[in-house]
Structure of DUF985 domain-containing protein:
Amino acid sequence: MSGVGADGEIERLVRQLNLQQHPEGGFFCELFRGDRQMTFTTKTKHDGPRDVGTCIHYLLKAPNFTSWHQVLSDELFLWHAGGPCKLYLLDNEGNLTHKILGDALKDADHVYQVLVPHDTWYAAELLDDVKYVLFSAVVIPGFEFKDWIQGEREKLLEQFPQHKDVITKLTKK
């Protein structure tokens, strides 16, 4: 955008997309919530039926990060604008991987979408001098805040001491 700095672009996106403060930091707007509910036929930690799916826009702005947490459902992130962000995924066996969500046409190391399987710990941070990232998050079965589990630094360090640096870096305390 010529003549508009990153702060102006962020303000425009917040206004245009009707984004609100997210409890975890950043900004969001729910775009879709399925009008049907599903019940589970296999073992799950959900406490009852859920909407079939949900979708939000989410904008993460520097210097913020998304701290370690889990969601009981599968979550698919789809990149739209801004710079890249690094998504860390940590499974219950202690395997740590990462993906860079960003413009795959500009950088072959970036991907347009990242799937976070249910019950997987994950966190996100902006890369280098990136001012913001805008992506959608599709959650199936649909997202409910009661299905969101905040990672606690001490408990995560006890469970995954081999990942001390990245856990400490991406937890708030």
About this structure: The first helix runs from residue 6 to 16. Helices lie at 6-16, 153-159, 164-169.
